[in-house]
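From the shared-data thread, chain only:
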Amino acid sequence: MDKYIRYTGFVLDKLDYIFKDKVTVSGTENIPKENPIMFTSNHFTRLETLLLPYFCNRYSGKLARSLADKGLFSGKGGFTEYLERTGTLSTDNPNRDEIITGDLLTGENNWIIYPEGNMMKNKKVTFEKGKFMLHLKDKVRSLFTGSAVLAINSQLLRGELLKDADAATMAKYFITGKAISPLPTAIVPVNISYYPIRPGGNKLQLWIGKFIKNVSARMSEEMDIETNILAGANMHIHFCKPIYVNEYIARTKAVADKIPLISAERKREFIINFYRHKLTTTFMRAVYNHVAINLDHIFAMTLYFYDKDEIHIKELISRIYLNIKDLQKIEHFHMHQSVKLNVFKVLAGKEYEPLKSILDLARSEGIIMGGEEYEYLQINRAAFNNEYEFHNIRLKNVMKILINEMMLLDEVTDVIKANAAKTNADISQRIFDKLLRTDIHNFEKDYEKLKSPLSTKQEFGKPFFLKGKDNKVGIVLSHGYKASPEEIRPLAEYLNSLGYNIYGVRLHGHGTSPENLQTTSWLKWYDSYMRGVVALDQICDSVIFAGFSTGGLLSLYTAAQHPDICRGVISINAALKLQDIRVRLVKVVNFWNEISDKFRGHAIKEYIEDTPEHPETNYSRNYIKGVNELGKLMKRTKESLDEVISPTLVMQSKGDPIVKPESGKMIYSEIHSREKELIEPDLKNHVIVRGDVSEPVFKPISDFINHLMHK
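Structure, as tokens:
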């Protein structure tokens, strides 16, 4: 059998490579490798009967046998042989219960059971009168309790056979001559989640369709969903904490053991009947509670509990984000990666691909009406609640499946219902406060971790927000390379005095210690800038992207990526071309350092000492890797300039000793903004956002903003 298991792994690896399918696994530490194990899992696709045994085998170290529909054994040839060789039993095998019990007694093989008994295509499970109820095509029924019966029976028989290995009993369970495991039977609940679930044709389905003709509607639906999961979805398998059957039944067993004149068989029957439903409910609650909550779930639930029939796209996105953040606080929930890492990107809106994907699905299913060009979306409640046929709901209404899967999680529904009752203004303010607090917390954590004699003053490195007189205009303002938010504070305070809201960004790796430049990247700088953008977008009617030097590059690059948010751009001495010829050597030096590290040699130089114009706000040491990241940002910004369409002010000092003055003209000529202006103040320094620069720098900026907001 081992060679067939290895073959399954080989096939999975190939599928993963060819179809870029991502199978992730968590909770493997919960698998007690020495105990006989019964894995109990939810069941959504036929793929699980083929894939789950492989992963159970990989992480338990034993063959994990399973049951499969008798129809899969009706033919002859490779597939049927594969099932038989890997220990899979037909559901109508007359000895199946005895074989399963025997394996659990000896611990020779583990078993996988699906207590739902059906593929739950609609995922509609309710909890009524102490039992989980499955809503199938033509009936509502409770979970099958056979897995609990087999687990309890194996544990009770274990106690008897360890005392007296009765030959007849050993033969009945096909374990004659085998040793009984002294370790208790363990039940390991398993949750299988998929993300994203998307119906629709794909190359794999088309390829299979060439070989299988005249398929039924039901088979066509299964091919559609199963091949899409193979081709594009993430399958996540989570192993929950084990339930040891001996501990679960201990109290009642102790009582039963004291009752005289009753046979061991009758005692087993009593204990099994007492616990079969309770144990089934216990392990299936663990299964259902450990669904990997993903972005699609929260999108669907946010829409479902929203009490109006129309919602602005910006408000919808804000509510989704707040629901994600509030659910993250509940530690026992199992959160998918789509709602764990950098979730502030959800606030970037329709440009964020995972959000765009679920929006497209909701439109295609008629749940929301209004194309990408519409700001207000209509919610079609009738389409949302349409259950369709049990066997085609996976094609017709994935959104309803997502809702059904979440409805068992009372804490999830409570959070989303509570947020649905909040006003849009409350939601927006809460999000802004969360983003600003997170920004400050991340800085303080970095500063404490990296503090050194070369560190910037802590108060200079901290990101800041200056509240304006109203919420009409917000300006995101970023400092330059090696600097800190204090560098742009004079400009920030000047603009704030005119009534504007100012978010002073702290770029990752800055405002702490120069060593931080070794671990940062231009993408992290972009993320830092975007946090300021999405924060102000929550509380302001219009957001202007502004920045000095490297911050100027980021203002241009971000404007190219998010024209729907950007009201205008202010680029000040953006470093598109640098004066110092030494930067051309950075890539060579960086490459040499990496090669030297591999051969344990001495690197040429990781940094150079520097004397900045304003040492109180800037690092006095410049790391090679940091300059290399700056080069990447310069390149990406230059490539994106033709996508900048917002009104833009380009400011470039004529005597800039750091940035080549022609940079301003290059930016001005390359951007596609219909309204654009180039100002070249006759200044001989690079940092033109500090000092006596009110007339040549600050006033033209305020004039540009004033014109922009009153045109």
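The two ends are 76 Å apart (CA to CA).
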